[in-house]
Amino acid sequence: MNEAGEREGAPLRVVVVDDQPTIRLGLRMIVDDEDGLEVVGEAGDGVEALAVVRRTRPDVVLMDVRMPRSSGIDAIRAVVADPALGAVRILVLTTFDDDEHLADALEAGAGGFLLKDVEPVLLLTAIHRVARGDTVLDPTMASRVVRAYLDGGGARRRDARLDLLSPREVEVLRAVAQGRSNLQIGAALHCSEATVKSHVRSMLTKLDLLNRVQLVVFAYEAGLLVPGVSSD
């Protein structure tokens, strides 16, 4: 798995996908101005996005949802379905009126969601976190993403599926659903970041899920957390 820091000294490679050239330009300027990041490709629709991703094999794709010819949802599905692109992480950039598409993006395998007007420093942090395999959900969108998935017909999980997980995995799951990074979880549970990653991989396998965002949804479905209610 291609994660931040594995290629010593090499910058994270980013592809920007949006149908508006001005937005692509703005995102490129933000990313390219950051040490340790570089934009290696752009696309204006889902068809172009898939071609660019296959050619450049980026670490992270900043993906718009609504685009002509082929949507970001179609592109996410195609990337996730291609074994050769298994290391590519997808961070969706969306708008507040995209609720109807959030469930589809989550089901397709997106690894995070941010609003398009996110502050540059938060976007840059999110790129690094997604590359490491962390979950990134804009605080104002977390419950919206979960509700969009549930209301959109996402596969309902029985609470009994928690029995598939060890007690420590349940602790990690709750922390993941609270939006904590692997590093933060490790510090809280007194274990290494590598151990946390191992627990996450184990849970994804046991629950037959694609990524950490779907783990977040499972946590809500299983009753570990309630949308819109603080878990602190």
UniProtKB/TrEMBL annotation:
UniProt key word Transcription: yes
Record-annotated HTH luxR-type domain positions: 158-223
Any single GO BP term: regulation of DNA-templated transcription
Sample GO molecular function, one term: DNA binding
Modified residues (4-aspartylphosphate): 64
Keywords, sorted A to Z: DNA-binding, Phosphoprotein, Transcription, Transcription regulation
SMART domains associated with the record: HTH_LUXR, REC
Listed PROSITE patterns: HTH_LUXR_1, HTH_LUXR_2, RESPONSE_REGULATORY
Protein name: DNA-binding response regulator
InterPro entries registered for this protein in UniProt: CheY-like_superfamily (IPR011006), NreC/VraR/RcsB-like_REC (IPR058245), Sig_transdc_resp-reg_C-effctor (IPR016032), Sig_transdc_resp-reg_receiver (IPR001789), Tscrpt_reg_LuxR_C (IPR000792), WalR-like (IPR039420)
Species annotation: Serinibacter arcticus
Segments forming domain Response regulatory: 13-131
Short name of any one Pfam family annotated for the protein: Response_reg
